[in-house]
Amino acid sequence: MRTSTRWTVVVLVVVVALGWALWDQLDQRGADTPAGRPGSAQPGESRDRRDADTPEALAGPRAAADLPPCPASGAGAGPEALRGITLECVSDGAPVDVARAVAGRAVVLNLWAYWCAPCAEELPALAEYQRRMGSAVTVLTVHQDENETAALLRLAELGVKLPTLQDGRRRIAAALRVPNVMPATVVLRADGSVADVLPRAFTSADEIAAVVNPQIGAPG
C-alpha cells in the first residue's frame, strides 16, 4: 500500500471517530436541555403557560385579580367534545376537568386574550351579565395565551371577577371548532349540546342576554 493511501485511510478513520464522539456528546446534552424535559415546549410548539408563570410569580397577580374559583363538577360527563381536556384554573392553579365543570348547567364560554382590545371592552359586559343572571347561567372565560400573569393583571385592571381557565394551546377552541378570532363566545346548553358559536364581541349585558338567553331557555 502506498504511503499516501495509508495516510488517507488514517485520516478517514479519525474523522469517523470524531464524528461519532460529537454525535454522542450532542445526544447526551440534548437530554439535559429544557426542550428535552417533560412539560417543556419544543421550538414552535404552543403550551398552556410560560415557564416564568410559576406559582410564586403568580401569587401577587392572583391576589390582585381576586377571581372566584372555577366551577365544580356538575351532573353528568359533560360535552363529549371537551372530555379529556384538563386545564388550570387561573384563580388558584387547580386542575379543572373542563367537560365535568360545564356539565349539567347552561354555560357561556368566552374565549379571549390579554392583548385583545375588543376582549377588554367585552369582559365587563360579561361580568354584568353574570351578575344579572345569577345561578341561571355560568359565565366561564378562557384565556388563550401563554402569558397567565398578563391575563391576571388585565382582569385586575378591568375589575372583572369571573372564573377563568388558562388555555394557551387553545384546546377548547379546537375541540369546539371555534373560528380563529377573539373574542368568541360558545353557548352550551345544560344537556351539553352547543347552542351557538359566536365569533363576535358584545358591548353590553343587554346585548348578551338578547342573543344568549333564548338559546338556553333563560329569562331575558
Automatic annotation (TrEMBL):
GO CC annotation terms, alphabetical: cell envelope
Keyword annotations of the record: Cytochrome c-type biogenesis, Disulfide bond, Membrane, Redox-active center, Signal-anchor, Transmembrane, Transmembrane helix
Ranges for domain Thioredoxin: 76-217
Entry-linked Gene3D superfamilies: Glutaredoxin
SUPFAM superfamilies the record matches: Thioredoxin-like (SSF52833)
InterPro entries (UniProt xref): Redoxin (IPR013740), Thioredoxin-like_sf (IPR036249), Thioredoxin_CS (IPR017937), Thioredoxin_domain (IPR013766), Thioredoxin_ResA/DsbE_sf (IPR050553)
CDD domains, A to Z: TlpA_like_family
Example of a GO biological process term: cytochrome complex assembly
Pfam families: Redoxin
Main location: other
GO molecular function: oxidoreductase activity
Compartment(s) of residence: Cell envelope
Region (Disordered): 29-55
Transmembrane regions listed in the UniProt entry: 7-23
Protein name, as recorded: Thioredoxin domain-containing protein
